[in-house]
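Our preliminary data section would be incomplete without showing what the modeling component actually yields. Below, a chain of 377 amino acids is followed by its predicted structure, encoded as tokens that our downstream tools consume directly.
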Amino acid sequence: MIKTKPSIIKQSEITIQNQIKGIILDKIKSGEYKVGDKIPSEREMSQVYHVSRTAVRNAILSLMNEGIVVRATGQGTFVKKEINYVKDNTDRTFNIAYIVCKKNDARNPIDQEPFYIEIFNGIQEEAIKHNYHLFFSYLDESNEKELKLFNELVKKVDGLIMEEVTDRNLLISLRESLIPVVTILPSVFEKNIDSIIVDLEEGAYHAVKYLTDIGHRKIGIINGPLELYTAEIRFEGYRKALEEAGIPFEEALVDGNEGWRNNNGYDAMKRLLDRNPDITAVFAANDWLAVGSMALIYERGLAIPDHISVVGFDDTILARNAIPPLTTVRIPKKELAQYAVKRLLDIINDKSLLPMKMVLNTELIENKSSKPLFVEA
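Predicted structure:
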């Protein structure tokens, strides 16, 4: 069988560099270049394909950055690893997956998760516009059975949107597999993988600053699990606002490290009030926690906001349906979802794109669960 030489199309939307890179990847995928094999030199490839050595060099550098090949000084460039996943446009499934990384015992069905369901709906809406189907799954990154099922799912999609990733090794393996990935609100980051984050610290800071600006000084916080980056930086925003207002930080005003659910907010608020009966305001790290805290406040015979002002985070449907409607911090969930899909499809169409990190801002939504503190003259 006579092998044909892949041709370079000079007048193409795909750069010469990326065409060369694609040729090398195809040869590794097919087994023509095996692990340990030396690939042709820059000079040889530039002569074979009638392209500049600069284009070849940049293609090889890109593969080196992805860990596919390695250069040995004075010896040449060698294949470092096999490629288990490479798709070109003709292999597309037109499926993408939205994966929420969450422990088994911390999950609710997706339709009972106000935050995730809004992002899911935004991803689905944007995917449909581009003729893509959407898969959804939770993933416990420490569960071997779930990881096995996840690896099977990866083979059936063109790309992944991963939310709240906490395992850097998982990101490394995804990067090495070459599947396009966009992470949203991750707790860990990995070079060559795009991420879209929200300035959660800024949001928490503005929420607590709002409370200090309207006269509150005894302000509690009901936090999420502090081992999670997304909870930790909200906590930092709380501390920053107190410090700026000249209010001493008190450990007794901090609670809620168990989880993100309403029962966690209820339990945390109970402990806060037991320790601090003179508390006048509370900042909850999400709306679930805020609604749980409100239930306990009412149970104690106190009024919101007359006795205690409550501020939440996320601006979910819970905030809008709370009694009274909840002052909260808006995360632009629909925009987050749209940007994630658009970026993922960009990467699917051009895997040579340089990774980027996008930061979205928050907005304080003032409502009836908070009011200025009345101070007697």
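The CA atoms of residues 66 and 176 lie 7 Å apart. The longest helix spans residues 333-349. Preliminary results of this kind motivate Aim 1 of the renewal.
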